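ping. complex inputs:
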Amino acid sequence: MGMTMTQKIIAQRAGKDSVQPGELVECSLDLVFGNDITSPVAIDEFYKIGVKEVFHKDKIALVPDHFTPNKDIAAAGLAKKTREFARAMGITNYFEVGKVGIEHALLPEKGLISPGYVVIGADSHTCTHGALGAFATGVGSTDMAAAMATGYLWFKVPEAIKIVLKGEMGPYVSGKDVILHLIGLLGVDGARYCSLEFTGNVAALTMDDRFTISNMAVEAGAKNGIFPVDAATLEYLAAHGGHPGTAYTADEDAAYISEHVIDLGQIPPTVAFPHLPENAKTIREAEALHIGIQQVVIGSCTNGRIDDMRAAAAILKGREVHEDVRCIIIPATQAVWKQCVDEGLMNIFVDAGAAVSTPTCGPCIGGHMGILAAGERCVSTTNRNFVGRMGHITSEIYLAGPAVAAASAIAGYICGPRPLPAEGGNES
Amino acid sequence: MICKGNVLKYGDHVDTDVIIPARHLNNPDPAVLALHCMEDIDTEFINKVKPGDIMVAGLNFGCGSSREHAPIALKASGISCVIAQNFARIFFRNSMNIGLPLLECPEAAIAAENGDELEVNLDTGVITNLTKGGSYTSIPLPPFMRELLSVGGLVNYTKARLEKEAK
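pong. complex structure:
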């Protein structure tokens, strides 16, 4: 029986000719990373193992992005512990505030992820890196500790779900709408333990779209979400100093437990209603309900890249954020932040009355920089709308792409860009 | 090993954000995490839970964030094992790695109600509902995971293995 892209990478790194779904194997690792919440727990476990050095100083990344810049004294302690461990171990890929960005946007940008790599991160959205043709999956802190000590980790070979893309996306539609639509189709456990293997017209998607799509594979329960390597992948790697790696293609006779054909042209701007990412509604359904909002967040490991900033700016340009709304924009890395300055997007954001933050996961996890009060509603380009995720348990999160988020910030209720009056005017 | 305790029952898709909200992740001390365990879904949980109690849930238990603080908080609050219709994969890994036993058993999970007394044989995977009288067998763990649990988790497993390799 043939193998999928994921199965081929796992087999290669387990030193086997082939693997079967359900088989438990050990793979050598190309990159092991964690953040300021998960690394401190991993550091304690690492020392309990009794080793004195990490397996490879260049194959570990420590990215303090969640509660940074430090939100309180306890969080400052976590960041300090992470920093001190990085120094003690001589870890090369430690990123201090001022250089740090959100891990899943930063690591590809730094050229640390390549096709064919096996990547684990102590963060569930590690699946983001499948966009580059790597097998990347989220784990916990103890896994991170064992991986830092040994350089390998156990995996169950996943069954696969094939997602065939066709057509081209319509106006104001981005990777976020594609993945919200897909999660609506599969359900939050529809891909539990499986790999999502994307194929077909992937050329219709920019790299940023692919990162967004792979990022939310975990919200359908998937172990990973992987894209084939094409010209856009290689161009991205070249631009960011990444190694071209090894491109794996699925065998013709690879087995999939199901196959879904997604016509990109048929996907409308999509919103996931509280309190599960599977509650996907079309923008027309959402607009009809005229749901008033108090906050908009544009950023995160899902949608904090330059494509997202440009999509938001295109709508905010010459318009003003509604007086009842706090619009918080968070470029995911320092490079994206600087590009926003260079392209004039920052002026657009500030002129529109949006607050722009330094890179941080902040509000997405209810950490800081935009916590919701009781009963407040937020349109967010983040990835989870669970109960209490961004603040009070009676607050509500509506997940959307940057175009819908920016349009909603202007209108004061959940809407797409189409109902907005022309640039320079505001709906009264 | 036998676990015996009363059922605390929850529904489908219990995510790790409600098991332990991120606002409490700035202090990973298990005792502190236990004080806030489940508070966003059940403010009474920490007052109700007794050492040895068994959490029972529906589908996809532990979905969402990879925070290991979630199984740590459950374990530190006194939960002896979790029985669910099925589990999200990162939560499953994390629980095995820290030595919190999980049992996948849809029949037992559906039948059990709040307050029922259960007896769980972790070696055989047999779950007995002492209140209602039913007996169920959970989906057996692969040998590797049984070994992980028997040595107390991945740290001990890795430590033993590295010591063996060094010889």
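The first helix of chain B runs from residue 16 to 19.
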